[in-house]
Amino acid sequence: MPEHTTPSDAAASELDDPSYRRGVVELLGVLAFGELSAFERLAEDAKLAPTLRDKAHLAEMALVEMQHFVSLRDRLAELGLDPYDAMAPFEATFTRFHLQTAPSDWLEGLVKAYVGDGLAADFYREIAAFLDLETRTLVLEALADSGNSAFVVERVREAIETDPKVAGRLALWGRRLMGEALSQAQVVAAEHDGLTAVLVGGADAPSGMDLASIGRMFTRLTENHAARMAELGLDS
Amino acid sequence: MPEHTTPSDAAASELDDPSYRRGVVELLGVLAFGELSAFERLAEDAKLAPTLRDKAHLAEMALVEMQHFVSLRDRLAELGLDPYDAMAPFEATFTRFHLQTAPSDWLEGLVKAYVGDGLAADFYREIAAFLDLETRTLVLEALADSGNSAFVVERVREAIETDPKVAGRLALWGRRLMGEALSQAQVVAAEHDGLTAVLVGGADAPSGMDLASIGRMFTRLTENHAARMAELGLDS
């Protein structure tokens, strides 16, 4: 485990700003719920694995999500909060997302793991710049790749080689995953002003992104998603 | 992560003994499968959790099992083996055990997590003495408590306080868990000579336990199980 940095004076003063603090708590809450939820789904989808080796790979991705969850939860506790209270408001969103995107087979599960992991990492990278030093360090640590992505790429490409028809179905599936993710992200943004204010800046925090920047961020997220789909051998 | 010790000369020479080596490979195989299987069941049983906090506690126990799995698997690979080939012979045993002991509710899941964790730790401690230094270090590392046992004790005691009838049902459940575990352990011992030879000694490794020692080991395992049940407020 990397050691936590001690709070810098800058971080301490930023967290003294109640508006910033509320936003960061919402952000850590949504990320923590997302990680716990990813752990649950990866563990569930690992059951679909055709071999023990495949199951272990997906379980190892679940392990990495759970490690991130523990860091985020402990950071919320350090800030003097009940982590579970901070996470609770995001339960409905993630439940909806996973209900709408329950994989019907192993390959759909693999694509979901890969696309979801990648999208989360991109989002973490995008928001890191707007955070105080300590929160940023934590968020960037959660970017570390589990080293299991290569295995997903290999398996999906093999499956397409064996049966090229698979590619059309998985391409549709990838679009559905991205569509649901963006739609749930909009719900979260609309319902959680504090979180949005950390990104866009508010009366109290004017240093955030403007609307044009947010548009560009979504363009980058979509482009990276397309690149990941291409890496899997799929149209986006 | 603790660093691996470099192989001692003693370990290298013990592992040169084909009979010892075969036993250790079987042992690492059964432990690795047990950890992966415990991860799966804990992740599954976490779904029964009444609150987010409870779910996170069980998921964190699953995380710890998965970390042990990764160490054991990597050790098998270091020994030049395909870890999944070494694990495969134990699949039927664990599948049977978990089928016979699928918890019907959250409390049964908690008791199973606690009893299973404890029994595994006791067994690891018992066998460590018969292993070469490097394997022993690895096995002893896997003993580290996840720190979530206290939470199980608290939850089960609360449930009994709220409804004392629960205690009878959970006591029966604990006996069933122990009975199934012992019966599966017998199957494993009967089917895997190499593994048994590491413990009891064979023509090539006469330094193991005699039958009286094995009897005493089972007595200790049973006594510790009874102590754990008492800790939960349950008869054994």
Description:
Chains A, B: This is Rubrerythrin. 2 copies of one chain form a homodimer. Chain A is built from 11 helices and no strands. Chain A is mainly α. Chain A has a single domain (14-231), classed as Up-down Bundle (Ferritin), CATH 1.20.1260. In chain A, helix 5 runs antiparallel to helix 9. The two termini of chain A are 36 Å apart. Chain A binds chain B through residues 36, 39-40, 43-44, 46-47, 51-53, 55-56, 59-60, 62-63, 66-67, 69-70, 73, 84, 87-88, 91, and chain B through 36, 39-40, 43-44, 46-47, 51-53, 55-56, 59-60, 62-63, 66-67, 69-70, 73, 84, 87-88, 91.
List keywords for this structure.
homodimer, mainly alpha, Ferritin, 76% helix, globular, disordered N terminus
For the terminal residues of chain A, how far apart are their CA atoms?
36 Å
Chains forming the largest contact? A-B, 25 and 25 residues
Structural classification of chain A: mainly alpha
**Portion of residues within helices of chain A:** over 70%
What is the class of chain A in the CATH system? Mainly Alpha
Organism (chains A, B): Mumia flava
Pfam family, one (chains A, B): MiaE_2
Protein name (chains A, B): Rubrerythrin
Domain Ferritin-like (chains A, B): 19-202
What's the arrangement of secondary structure elements?
The structure is a homodimer of 236-residue chains.
Chain A: H1 9-16, H2 18-45, H3 52-78, H4 83-87, H5 91-100, H6 106-128, H7 133-141, H8 149-162, H9 166-191, H10 193-200, H11 211-231
Helix pairs in contact in A: 2-3, 2-5, 2-10, 3-7, 5-9, 6-7, 6-8, 6-9, 6-11
Domain Ferritin-like (chains A, B): 19-202
Protein name (chains A, B): Rubrerythrin
Pfam family, one (chains A, B): MiaE_2
